[in-house]
Each structure stands twice: as C-alpha cells, then as structure tokens.
Write a structure and sequence with these properties.
Radius of gyration: 21 Å
Shape: globular
Helix content: 25-40%
Distance between the termini: 43 Å
Number of strands: 12
Structural class: alpha/beta
Order of helices and strands: EHEHEHHEEHEEHHEEHHHHEEEHH
Bound molecules: guanosine-5'-diphosphate, manganese (II) ion
Largest sheet: 5 strands, mixed
C-alpha cells in the first residue's frame, strides 16, 4: 500500500522495527491474492489478511485484489490498504456476472429455494450464495483486475494460518508446472449437487478433446466415472493458475455446466465445480497438496503432518485437529491415486 501523507512520529518510540525483507520485490512472480467480500466482512477479512501478512506476505508484498457485487466503501478500502503490504485493487463485479442468465426460469429457482429451506439444506434458501458460487466458478478470473495476473491465491474472511510459509507457493506452482492446489478435501452434501455429475458427463462426452489422459478420475469416482463419490478440494483456500481457468477447456466446461442451470435449480458449489474440472481437465501431477500450509476455515483444520515440519515453521495448531487422515477427508485418496507416499509421520497422526 502506498501512503503519501507525512506521518507524525513524535509520539512514537524511536525504534521503529520493520521486519527484514527476505525476498527482494523483484523476485515476485506475476500473481495476486484475491478476495470476494462484502463491506460488512471487513473485520473478518482484516483478521485473515493480518495472518497472511505475518506468516508470508510481509516478506514478499504480493498484490491483493478485492471483488464485490456492491461498491467497496471507504472503511473497507482504508483498513485493507493499511494491512496489505503489496498494492491493493478494488473491483466492482459487472452485473452480468452476478445475475440470472436469460435461460434460467427464475420462478423455478425460487421454488427450489423454498423447498431447500424446508429441507434445511445449508445455504439452500439463499439467492446471493448461489450468485457467489457461480461467480467463483466461472467469472472471478475474468474480472478485468485479474486479467494481468498468472496465478491467484484465494483468501476468505475468518481464516487462520498456523505456520510460517517459508517458501513462495506462487513460485512453487509456476516452477513445478502446477495448475491447482489444496490443503483440505472432503465429501460434498449430495442434496446440493444431485445432477452435477450428469452435467459433467454430458460435457465430457461432447468434449473428449478437453479431458486429460492421465487425469484424477480415481479421486472423483469409485466406479471408473459412472458415479461421483462427492470428493472435492475445499475451494475457500486455493492457489491456482488463472491461465488454466481462462483456457478453452475450463471455459467450455463452465459454460456447459452453467447452461444446465444447476447453480440455480440446485445449489452447486464452486468447490465441486473447480475440483471436478481440476480432476478431469488437468493431468494428475498438475494438482498439488500443500502439507506445509497450515490452515483453518470453520469447521476444518489442516495442521501439517510431521513434527519437525511444525517446529521448523513455528506452527501453533494442535496436530490432533488435523483433518487430513480422518474418515471424512478425501486426502488419502489423493495420495493413493497419485502413488505418492503420505508425509512422514502420518501414521502417528491418523
Ligand atoms: P462459506 O465459506 O461457504 O460458508 O461461505 P462464505 O460466506 O464464506 O462466502 C464465500 C466467499 O464469498 C467469502 O469470501 C465471502 O466474503 C464471499 N461472499 C459470500 N456472499 C457474498 C455476497 O453476497 N457478496 C459478496 N461481495 N461476497 C460474498
Ligand atoms: Mn467462508
């Protein structure tokens, strides 16, 4: 953030400590943090930013893009600009990225919301949540503020980071040719996506050219693709390639799903939508699991496996909170299909 006004320091202690800059700014790659938020998310996103800065970005000064379907107010901009050590950008989402496409029957969508409210399906009655999921699935990477970047790191309000991040995840992605990454995975609520897999199958048979040969079908399906096992990467944390999301393969995939209407007639989440895309359009080895990035978003924790890793990175998470090897996590499956060993020490933490 830039501050041009002179600051009155007469009341401050003479020793103003600034952390040493470990990575010269010239070492950054072309990447940004990105947050979708409402003005009233300010204090929850402030907590998230403070932790991202303390554990990582104070040494790098990556930019941060904030997106909103309403204009950001001055408080939101002032607080976030003061916290982010890189440049901040604030974008308004164009109306046609956050509204009903013409092929959607809005009465039918309304009836679905009423029905899901009665069935107590999480966010089932929410119209804005559906616009949010559709936006994160198909549009954030095409916002004009995002177009100049190659990689993104999604940050939500109220998250926690429990360990130092002693390397640059953006650089890791670029140098190792990774396109998508995760720290937590789990099973989706079936009621929110009853026809998602049908829609995916329709897309896949019409677009075989977009399906990667060495894909992660084994992560998504237990019967060779006939049915979806509901495993998905939790998309409230993502470091990924914007160029992949802007590729013909991903855009054709999103466009095809969007035409089927499940963002409104069901309650498709961006997590299964991104995950299925990563699982089928990418080669297995293009998806990465960041054991070292310790993360919490209510109600799950990823605390790195391996005591030495946790000590080296000054972690403050309780290893017994780690979700990775518990029954409702899909992360073991990721290790199996990729034929890679689980991080050292996982047996002790099962
Ligand atoms: P959950 O994590 O699935 O419980 O959903 P969240 O409430 O955290 O929403 C996901 C992300 O979208 C967060 O970054 C929110 O700040 C953001 N978000 C959710 N709804 C809206 C909305 O109506 N407008 C805007 N601008 N952001 C939203
Ligand atoms: Mn959230």
């Amino acid at each position: 953030s830039t501050e041009s006004k002179p600051i009155d320091t007469s009341h401050q202690s003479p020793v103003v400590s600034r952390p040493p800059e470990l990575t010269p700014s010239g070492d950054r790659i072309n990447a940004t943090f990105v947050t979708l938020a409402r003005n009233n998310d300010i204090w929850e996103i402030a907590k998230s930013i403070r932790q991202v800065e303390d554990r990582f970005n104070r040494n790098h000064h990556y930019d941060w893009v904030f997106l909103n379907d309403q204009p950001f107010d001055d408080t939101f901009k002032k607080i976030t600009t003061s916290l982010v050590s890189g440049k901040t950008h604030y974008g308004l989402i164009p109306k046609d990225h956050w509204s009903y496409p013409e092929w959607i029957d809005q009465n039918k969508a309304k009836k679905v919301r009423e029905d899901m409210k009665e069935r107590k399906i999480i966010y089932g009655d929410s119209e804005s949540y559906r616009h949010m999921c559709r936006y994160e699935s198909g549009f954030f990477f095409r916002h004009e503020l995002m177009l100049n970047y190659e990689y993104y790191w999604r940050v939500e309000p109220s998250i926690q980071l429990f360990c130092d991040i002693s390397f640059d995840p953006f650089r890791y992605m670029k140098e190792n040719n990774k396109k998508y990454s995760f720290v937590l995975s789990l099973y989706e609520y079936f009621e929110t996506i009853p026809t998602l897999w049908d829609s995916v199958q329709k897309f896949a048979s019409a677009n075989p050219q977009h399906i990667a040969e060495d894909n992660s079908m084994g992560f998504l399906s237990d019967d060779g693709g006939k049915t979806y096992n509901k495993c998905h990467f939790w998309s409230n944390f993502e470091v990924g390639s914007l160029e992949w999301l802007r590729s013909d393969a991903y855009i054709d995939y999103f466009t095809s799903l969007d035409k089927d209407g499940g963002f409104f007639y069901e309650r498709w989440g961006d997590a299964p939508v991104h995950s299925i895309a990563a699982g089928l359009l990418l080669k297995k080895e293009e998806i990465h699991f960041f054991n070292e990035i310790a993360y919490y978003h209510v109600p799950f924790t990823h605390c790195p496996t391996g005591e030495q890793t946790r000590l080296d990175l000054k972690c403050h998470c309780n290893p017994s909170d780690n979700f990775d090897w518990k029954g409702y996590s899909c992360t073991s499956r990721y290790f199996q299909i990729n034929n890679i060993p689980k991080p050292e020490g996982y047996e002790k933490e099962e």
